[in-house]
Amino acid sequence: MNIQDQIKRLTELRNQKATEQLAIQEKVATEGRTKDAAEREAFAGLTSEIKMIDEELADLKEMEAVQATKAVPAAGGTPAAASTSRGAIATGGAPAIHVNKEADEKFKGQHYTRLVIAKALGRLMDMSPVAVAQQRWGKSNPKLVEVVKAAVAGGGSGAGEWGAELVQVNNQYLGDFIEYLYAQTVYDKLPLRQVPANVMIKGQDGAATGYWVGESKGIPVSKADFMSVNLTPLKVAALAVVSNELLRDSSPSAEMLVRDALVQASSQRVDQTFLSAAAASAGVSPAGILNGLTPITSAGNEIQDVIADVKALYAPFIAANNADGLQFVTTPSLAKALGLMQNALGNFAFPGLSANGGALLGDPLVSGGNVGAGDMILLKPSDIYRIGDYGIEVSISREAYIEQDSAPTGATDTPAAASANGTSMFQEESTAIKVVRPINFAKRRASAVAFIDSAAYGDPEVP
């Protein structure tokens, strides 16, 4: 995450904290009273958090100003080379990602989807992707046609040839695609600690103990626990097969379906694993953040039980001296149920909460459809590592032989007998679309997460 992204996220967090403060003040003003002890504590906590955010924003803005004075001119004698240089400077060698919002775009990622469709139909109809783009979108989006034209004009991967322009083209519209993916997952909503891939990070995971010692007595031996984390890039992937007739359909709904085929499977799998208790599979998938944790049993369904549950969730963080910057994660239904709970006077007990999240007792709450039923998770985002996003690679083929199976037997390192579920894209008049996203995450320390697995807030108590 670059400095500008950090400033944006912190500014959004500050606005959220200020909104929570305003909600508390408006509530007591409406009821014609002063703050009670819990409200005063929450209000003071928000004031402290806002102050810390302001200090961090001041540091980041100062760093941003320093960074601007050290800007490096783009190298290269051609526009393509200069663009490549700028991307490498901004991202440390990784492709730069830009978000473009055109008036013709009817849903997020539509332009990137159209780039994919133009290339697929070009092969399918034995015509150039430029001609496809001109025929379908020439009048409504001439800029897209120019971008596609630049993508297929050359004949190689060197500077000024078609490979370089293709990277430039994908960078120009890939941002919309990634933005849509981020909006669907808890994983990408949380401000996790971003680290480089393939770097060993060592740390201390247990405190050493000192002792009072009498004269001439032996000194007890102190023991400190240590740990290490090494995140190598793993990959989450999805492979969709669609009919050529579907690709020929020029309506927006058909384009949206192609986009969903690229996005939904990957985004769901990331969240399902991230928010689970699944163990790691070496070289395949990371462990879920609930792995190895003992769930806390909910105290009950009433308002006082919610407060008791929050205290229980906080307890391990407080014991580890790690109770700042925490966030809740739960299901949309539990978030909504909390927002609807009313006290004896008919006032909402936890104002500002909806199915989309909000704040619970002074801490941000994020909701997600892939959170386990009954799970109320408390975590510290800065204590969960994630590797920097490499972007998303999309591949298309209408000649490939696909093993259409949810448990394919094919593997290049250990070849197996041909599967009975193999399908030729050429023979079946279909197109295969593959999306791959390199990704990995891990808890930075054991006290990064705590959770309740039996929450049913607002439900009638069972006698």
Topology readout:
Elements: H1 3-30, H2 37-69, H3 79-91, H4 110-124, H5 129-137, H6 142-151, H7 162-183, H8 186-189, E1 193-195, E2 200-204, E3 226-230, E4 234-243, H9 244-248, H10 252-274, H11 303-319, E5 327-330, H12 332-340, E6 357-360, E7 363-367, E8 376-379, E9 384-387, E10 393-397, E11 401-403, E12 422-424, E13 430-439, E14 441-443, E15 449-452
Parallel strand pairs: 1-9, 5-7
Antiparallel strand pairs: 2-3, 4-13, 5-8, 6-7, 8-15, 9-14, 10-13, 11-12
Helix pairs in contact: 1-2, 4-5, 4-7, 4-10, 5-6, 6-7, 7-10
Strand content: 15-25%
Total strands: the figure is 15
Strand order of the largest sheet: 6-7-5-8-15
> Helical region count?
12
Please tell me how large the radius of gyration is. Answer: 26 Å
Q: What structural class do you assign from the helix and strand content?
A: alpha+beta
Shape: globular
Residues in helix, % = 40-55%
Unreliable parts: 78-101, 152-157, 160-166
Question: How are helices and strands ordered from N to C?
Answer: HHHHHHHHEEEEHHHEHEEEEEEEEEE
Distance between the termini: 51 Å
Oligomer: single chain
Give a short account of the largest sheet.
5 strands, mixed
**Arithmetic mean of pLDDT:** 78
